[in-house]
Amino acid sequence: MELRIDRQALVPVVQQVVDSLVRWLRCGNVAPGTRLPPVRQIARINLLSQACVVEACERLVVKGLLVARRGTAFFVASPQANQLEDFSWDEGAEGKQLGQRDPWGLGCGGLPESWRETDDLAFAIRQVSRTDMASLFNYSTPLGLPALRQQIIKRLIRLEIQAQEHEVMTTSGASQALDLIVRTLFMPGDSVVVESPGYCVLFDLLRLHRITMIEIPRNPNGPDIAALEAVLLKQRPRALFINSFHQNPTGSSLGRLVAKRLFQLANAYGVLVIEDDVYADLHTGPGVRLAALDAKRNVVYVGSYSKTLSSSLRVGFVVAPAEVISRLVSVKMISSKGASPFAESVLACLLASGAYGKLVQRQRQRLNGARRLVLQMLDDADWEVFGKPSGGLFVWARSRKQDRAQIRAHAQRCGIQLSSSTAFSPSDETTDWLRINVAYACDQQARRFFQATSPDRPQAF
Predict the structure, then answer these.
(1) Which tens digit of pLDDT belongs to each residue from 118-172?
(2) Burial (Cβ within 10 Å: 0-12, 13-18, ≥19) of residue 159
(3) Out of 179, 260, 325, 419, which residue is the most buried by the measure of CB atoms under 10 Å away?
(4) What pTM, to 2 d.p., does this model score?
(5) CATH number of residue 428's parent domain
(6) Ranges for the HTH gntR-type domain (predicted)?
């Protein structure tokens, strides 16, 4: 049994063994009662100590995935009913059937657990637990932790976005930020412009609040300006929602000329712009944010640290004029009593020490390397790529040779979870385009999948 062990990663080797065994159990259709290869054999093949393998297996025994018999012999446990029903949720990915093993998340929306770094985060958690006991027990302030908001303003200055401390409000991730914006600033029946393809969670949120969506095409350098101008002229929407950099799902970024023309149109027609920039820390190189062009403060800017630091330790923020922030704060305190002061203190500690900046720099470097490999694999397999993004998590692509049903069949055989065929369309239209998460795409399962989609062509990998 060959495991995927990255000795350069900051994830402990034992945890990598656990993760690899879990993937083997979930993706390999391993029958209950199957005996694992001997510990000595696993250790020898993967250049590990036997103690390391035993500890990993014992952790899986505690989780109920393995059972131990006769000393160091381990067997696959029988699945419990609650295990079969307790599926993880991932925005934009195809659903899993009841009893189906967890596939490899090629179409998922976040970083793999093996990419997460725990040392600095664990240190910050211990530091806050020792020095800021109030954050463990008390509610947050309405605007959020002052020390964190000061760090956010420093980040905004680097992006050439001007804001005062009272114009920044923290949230429990960007999802809460968008929810507060929609429920506070719009009424049922209002119409807003959204991009297609675009962020599926936003579409669900707007449907929930009965907001009418007017879709315009997303191009490789931003929204279709001609289509936007026509919509603004004829339908007079209240607002425009836009991903500025490394859009979900296409990975495309807003071009400078498109950004300036979009901003001119929004001002001319009095349209509020909600700029979702949750992938800002994964961007490399120059770029322009709409909020940086906004002297009249007609842009509500949304950011997040959850995509890079931790999906569990959820921290996001909103930047807007003081009167808008005041309204958002009122709804925030009514609906949730504020965000988590503990999570905010931990993030503020990481930002102040410089550890977060170094973390995202390593993530960018790793993603850039993975993206180059993925684009080469897609080219070798004769896939069409939307705009060839230069940063972020996603590539938007489709096979030139095979249809969606054929691609899906290959994915099932290879243990791959694809992105949804309808979620990224505001009108639920079906597409052959797939969101590919580059952090998952260099795995051996993903490579086998791409090879299978182009069986008549020699592969470079």
Answers:
(1) 889 999 999 999 988 888 888 889 999 999 999 999 999 999 999 999 999 999 9
(2) middle
(3) 419
(4) 0.82
(5) 3.90.1150.10
(6) 11-79
